[in-house]
Specification:
This protein has one domain: 3-Layer(aba) Sandwich (Rossmann fold), CATH 3.40.50.620. Helices cover 37% and strands 10% of the residues. It has 7 helices and 5 strands. A 5-stranded parallel sheet has the order 3-2-1-4-5, sandwiched between helices.
C-alpha cells in the first residue's frame, strides 16, 4: 500500500460508536484498522465489535497488545467493574476513568504503523463530549500530536480527527445516515455482557441515540 493510493490511512478503532461510525464514514480512505488491547474492562467486547465491522467492510484489522498499561497505569477503567463510577460524563467522579496519555500512546503506535505501511494519515474519533474529562481528546492535544508526528516521520504522517468539535449525538446522526448497525458496538465501561445503563458512557450512548432518533438496540440492565 502506497501513500498515493486512495486508501491512505490507518484508523484507531475501539469498537465503540464513535470509531465505528468513523470507520464507515471514511471507509474509502482507510487501508488498515488497529485496535489496542490495553487491559480495560470492556476491551474484549470492543474488540469483537471492531472485528465485526472490519469484516463487513473488508478492511484489514489487527489487534496490538498494550497490556503494560493495564498493569502499571492507574485508572478505574483498568481496575474492574466495581471501580467504575455512575452518572454523567461531566461529573467530577468520571475523571477516575482517565487512562493517562492513552490517546498519545495509541496514536504514537498507529503513527509508526502508518509509516511502516507507507500510509499518510491516522484517523481517530475523539469528539467534543470528551473534552471536559479527557485532556488527550481536546483539539490542542490533537493538533500538537499531529505536528509532532509530521515532524517525526519521513512520510509526514498526520492525524485526521473530523469529530473533534461535534457531539456524540451528532456522530450518531452521521451513523444513522450511513446505516451503521450500532447493535454491534460496545460502550459500557463496566464491561459486562449487557450495558449497565448507569455509567457515564452508557448515559452518553443513550442520549446520543435519542438525539439522533435511533431506536436504541443496546441491551441494558443485568451485567
Amino acid at each position: 500500500m502506497k501513500a498515493s493510493d486512495k486508501k491512505n490511512g490507518v484508523i484507531v478503532l475501539s469498537g465503540g460508536m464513535d470509531s465505528v461510525t468513523l470507520l464507515h464514514d471514511r471507509k474509502e480512505e482507510i487501508a488498515l484498522a488497529v485496535t489496542f488491547n490495553y487491559g480495560s474492562n470492556h476491551n474484549a467486547r470492543e474488540i469483537e465489535c471492531a472485528r465485526y465491522h472490519c469484516g463487513l467492510l473488508g478492511i484489514p484489522h489487527i489487534v496490538i497488545d498494550l497490556s503494560f498499561m493495564g498493569e502499571y497505569f492507574k485508572s478505574s477503567l483498568l481496575a474492574g467493574a466495581d471501580s467504575i463510577p455512575e452518572g454523567n460524563y461531566d461529573d467530577d467522579n468520571m475523571k477516575s476513568t482517565v487512562v493517562p496519555f492513552r490517546n498519545g500512546i495509541m496514536l504514537s503506535v498507529a503513527c509508526g504503523l502508518a509509516e511502516s505501511e507507507g500510509l499518510r494519515h491516522v484517523f481517530i474519533a475523539n469528539h467534543g463530549g470528551d473534552h471536559a474529562i479527557y485532556p488527550d481528546c481536546r483539539r490542542g492535544f490533537i493538533d500538537a500530536m499531529s505536528e509532532a508526528m509530521e515532524q517525526g516521520t519521513y512520510e509526514h504522517v498526520d492525524i485526521i480527527a473530523p469529530y473533534t468539535d461535534i457531539t456524540k449525538g451528532e456522530i450518531a446522526l452521521i451513523g444513522k445516515r450511513l446505516g451503521v448497525d450500532y447493535s454491534h458496538t460496545y460502550s459500557c465501561y463496566k464491561g459486562g455482557e449487557r450495558h449497565c445503563g448507569k455509567c457515564g458512557t452508557c448515559v452518553e450512548r443513550m442520549e446520543a441515540m435519542k438525539y439522533a432518533g435511533i431506536d436504541d438496540p443496546t441491551p441494558y440492565g443485568v451485567l
